[in-house]
């Protein structure tokens, strides 16, 4: 009898882990947009720090991010357990925020003049080169800003993951949300560390290249890395931006029945490819429109206050 009970326990654990793996996979896809934006944003946040201090700053931000998760994950699970009806509104708010953030990036050219951007860039360069600046205070401010930004993005990731697992038992929810939260953190800051040191690797190859044939190869590889690094950052930022509209718009379409009903008739009598592409386009359009409305509302409030 004991052996039968033990085998039943193993079977239950295997079923639980199978459910967790399946739901985590879906949640990971849903949070891909935030992950892409998180990568680009955190890589930009630590830019401007001296090369030998980049990895310590990334590690400090990563520790702050883990602390954010330790606060947000239990809070999200408590909301799911005691106020389950609040999960969907929070998910919708997160979707609108994603879309708003995307539209704000698109509208940056109109919201900020070229002179403002150039002045900010010159101030950053002057601050890094100056011997008078308090480096510790400069880094501390960078880390503080990055952790604050991470708190918002972490909240979005956790709410989206919780929305995917909302109908599951509490243990499954806890495992899925915790796995997504902490694996995303490890993934993001591991990649951020690689990204910020990518150009340094190129410079090191060029500096160590001699006049031999192998040295010529090293120099070419280093030059290629320096050419690719800034373009990779721009590509990462663009992919993250598109994913924000797809994920944020998808959350809104799923959460607002009238939007879902608009989409359903359009999918009839279409081929397999269009059936996949059309919902993505529809989600992106909804994301851009909702983000634009949110941005206009916030600009209106700021103008009224001014």
What tags apply to this protein structure?
mainly alpha; single chain; 306 residues; disordered N terminus
Explained architecture:
By secondary structure, this protein is mainly α. The protein has one domain. The chain is built from twelve helices and no strands. The N terminus is likely disordered.
Topology:
Elements: H1 2-30, H2 32-45, H3 54-82, H4 87-106, H5 108-111, H6 114-129, H7 135-164, H8 170-196, H9 198-208, H10 213-255, H11 257-266, H12 272-305
Concise overview:
The chain is mainly alpha-helical and 306 residues long.
Distance between the amino and carboxyl termini: 75 Å
- Poorly predicted residue ranges: 1-9
CA gyration radius, whole angstroms? 23 Å
Count of distinct structural domains: 1
Q: How many beta strands in the DSSP annotation?
A: 0
> What is the share of helical residues?
over 70%
Number of helical stretches of at least 4 residues: 12
Q: Please state the average pLDDT score.
A: 75
Question: What is the helix/strand order?
Answer: HHHHHHHHHHHH
Classify the secondary structure makeup into a structural class: mainly alpha
> What percent of residues are in strands?
under 5%
Largest beta-sheet characterization? none
Overall, the morphology is globular
């Amino acid at each position: 009898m004991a052996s039968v009970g033990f085998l039943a326990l193993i079977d239950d654990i295997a079923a639980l882990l199978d459910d967790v793996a399946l739901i985590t996979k879906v949640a990971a896809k849903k949070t891909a947009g935030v992950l892409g934006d998180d990568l680009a944003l955190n890589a930009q946040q630590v830019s401007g720090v001296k090369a030998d201090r980049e990895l310590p700053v990334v590690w400090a931000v990563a520790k702050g991010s883990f602390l954010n998760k330790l606060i947000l994950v239990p809070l999200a699970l408590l909301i799911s357990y005691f106020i389950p009806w609040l999960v969907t509104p929070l998910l919708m708010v997160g979707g609108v925020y994603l879309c708003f953030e995307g539209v704000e990036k698109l509208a940056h050219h109109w919201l900020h003049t070229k002179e403002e951007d150039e002045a900010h860039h010159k101030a950053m360069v002057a601050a890094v080169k100056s011997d008078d600046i308090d480096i510790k205070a400069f880094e501390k401010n960078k880390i503080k800003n990055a952790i604050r930004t991470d708190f918002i993005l972490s909240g979005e990731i956790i709410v989206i993951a919780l929305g995917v697992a909302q109908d599951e038992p509490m243990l499954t929810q806890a495992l899925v949300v915790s796995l997504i939260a902490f694996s995303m953190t490890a993934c993001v800051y591991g990649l951020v560390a690689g990204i910020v040191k990518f150009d340094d690797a190129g410079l090191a190859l060029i500096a160590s290249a001699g006049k031999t044939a192998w040295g010529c190869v090293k120099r070419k590889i280093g030059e290629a890395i320096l050419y690719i690094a800034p373009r990779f950052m721009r590509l990462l930022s663009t992919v993250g931006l598109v994913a924000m509209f797809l994920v944020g718009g998808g959350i809104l379409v799923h959460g607002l029945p009238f939007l879902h009903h608009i989409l359903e008739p359009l999918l009839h009598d279409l081929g397999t490819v269009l059936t996949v592409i059309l919902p993505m386009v529809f989600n992106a359009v909804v994301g851009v429109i909702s983000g634009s409305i949110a941005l206009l509302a916030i600009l209106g409030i700021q103008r009224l206050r001014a």
